[in-house]
Amino acid sequence: MANVLLCLVLGQLILIPLAHKWQLDLKIVSASGLVIGLIVGCVLAVASRYYDLALWTRVLASGVLIMTLATWALLARFYRDPERVPPVGDDLIVSPADGTIKYIKHLAPGELPVSVKHGKEMAVSEPLREILADQGGYLIGISMTFLDVHVIRAAIKGTLTHFEHIDGCFLSLKRADALYRNERVLEVIKNDRYAVGLVQIASRLVRRIVAYTREGEQLDLGQRIGMIKLGSQADVILPKTDGLRLLIKTGDRVYAGVSILAGIGQMRLSSLDTVSSTSSALPQVTIGEPSVA
């Protein structure tokens, strides 16, 4: 029992600080730490029946085993690719990535889209300016952690009219210049009414961004279009077309291919302050956990 308790405590002491550092869900990490600690504790208890292990040996061995199992569990969660059922409806704009809405920025007509990191703003893509045309729009930032699914999906049904893959040097996304220097992919998906821009930004631990589609390809709503390998950020650029309703707010959890960022209706939003009050205008739209086929 002492070995099990030792590993349960070590599991929390090792994983909780990492969860804080990487901004992971504490409930998931804590529960995983308990399960991993229990498994390692049972292994250590069996080993202690045959070997007289000193305390420092048990602590060291337990720490190594906990980190090994935690790494495998993290990779298994990161590389999962669940089936998703996109919502049914016309003119729906869904989230391209799993994560948390970090910011929603109102873009004035003619303003160049920017991403925001620690209060510093910088332009992310000159070619994406044409999406906004003369009507302005919105820039939505989605922050992803290692625990999120990292498969990127099409935000709308349409044609991939622009694709640009820019190699980078993998800086921490906490650095203000990371948005310019990290590996990133710029995409524009266009239908017969409007276009949506997507900027995938890699962090310093990312090996690469993998694309599943090519420029000129026809995409379905929620179709897999790529994957960012390890922690990252995805920005969505929406034009302020007639009747556009934003259906999310800062801090919301979203899921790729199923959570609806915006819809096109008869009422046109005049400011971000009216977003929450108009979300009921689309009664068939549900924001929350993804449907799994």
Features:
293 residues; alpha+beta; Glucose Permease (Domain IIA); 2 domains; 8-stranded antiparallel β-sheet; 6 helices; 16 strands; 28% strand; elongated
In words, what does this structure look like?
This protein is α+β, with helices and mostly antiparallel strands. It has 2 domains: 2-78, no CATH class; 92-281, Distorted Sandwich (Glucose Permease (Domain IIA)), CATH 2.70.70. It is 28% helix and 28% strand. It has 6 helices and 16 strands. It has helices spanning 2-22, 26-50, 55-78, 129-132, 178-181, 275-278; strands at residues 92-94, 99-107, 114-117, 120-123, 137-144, 151-153, 158-166, 184-190, 195-202, 209-211, 218-219, 224-228, 232-239, 244-246, 253-254, 260-264. The protein has an 8-stranded antiparallel beta sheet, with no helix packed on it. A hairpin with a 2-residue loop joins β3 (114-117) and β4 (120-123). α1 packs antiparallel against α2 (26-50) and α1 (2-22) crosses α3. The protein is elongated and about 75 Å long. It starts with a helix and ends in a 15-residue tail after the last helix. Residues 176-180 and 266-293 have low confidence and may be disordered.
